[in-house]
Amino acid sequence: MDDYFNSEYTDFYADRKSLIVLVDECWSDYVHFGQVPDMFERTETCFDYHGPTAPSVVAAPSPSTTVIPDVAEKVAYVLVEFACSKTSRLGRERYSRHDGKLVVRIRLTEEMDMTSARGINQAFRLIEPYVGKVPVFLWGSLPCTLGSPWQKLNAQRPGWEARRDHLAKQFVALHKNFMKLANYISKHTDGHVCYEWPRRCSLWRDPRVIRMIRTFKMEMVNIDGCMVGLKSSLKATQS
Questions:
Q1: What is the mean pLDDT of each run of 10 residues along the chain (239 residues)?
Q2: Burial (CB count <10 Å: 0-12, 13-18, 19+), residue 231
Q3: What pTM was computed for the model?
Q4: Using CA atoms, how far apart are residues 157 and 226, in angstroms rounded to an integer?
Q5: Radius of gyration of the chain (CA)
Q6: Are strands 97-98 and 101-109 parallel, antiparallel or unpaired?
């Protein structure tokens, strides 16, 4: 699972200046509309391109004249990742096509500040052209730090109460906005809501999460990465 804040021990301070980057200035970091640049365009414009499976964020910025394609004919589906990193695995270029059609990948990252009204409004603007026209999958990957078993050890450290309260406030704000997006998407044809966390995360027992599972009639599934071919990125630990 991609960490929205890069490290379990990196705080998102609610009182710091927002790091939102306006979509109309730099949206290519988060979403791909229209035609994806081909291999020639990438190698010509991206000096750090390393191959066909490189993260999509190394792609050349899409031109300002790019338009949303004829949705029904050209788009297979839309994947919206809520609270993911800018280089999330699900949003990589290797998943940009399905059955000959475009897969629109929308990353809602820390820089967009999904705890804020501005961030959630941006998210609505990004998905609005697709909802009700093609399948849209909302994938929730909210930070699980507050529910991590490590918090039992951290509770012995000075200042833990303040950090716990901060994490709780952060979670409530993120989940509230996630539910706004989830309710909107699920009410339309082919709108789907998914949610991932480690199985031992105690937040699965949070009333908000239990209510979410019941509302969207979610099916609980335990998955070990090795079941789907996932391997460590460190060669020394690969078997």
A1: 36 33 32 35 34 29 41 89 92 91 94 95 95 95 92 90 94 97 95 94 96 95 83 74
A2: exposed
A3: 0.69
A4: 34
A5: 19
A6: antiparallel
CB-CB neighbours of 193 under 10 Å:
24
Fill in the amino acid letter for 108. Answer: L
Return the closest-CA partner of residue 125 out of 110, 111, 109, 108: 108
Three-state secondary structure readout of 154-178? HCCCCCHHHHHHHHHHHHHHHHHHH
The DSSP 8-state label assigned to residue 28 in this structure reads G
Q: Which two tokens stand for residue 219?
A: 């099916």
Q: 84: part of which helix (H) or strand (E)?
A: strand 75-84
User: What is the rounded distance in angstroms from the CA atom of residue 21 to the CA atom of residue 30?
Assistant: 10
**Residue 175 neighbours by CB distance under 10 Å:** 22
User: CA 204, 219, 211, 200: dihedral to nearest 10 degrees?
Assistant: 0
CB atoms under 10 Å from CB of 160, counted, come to 13
213 touches 220 (CB < 8 A)? yes
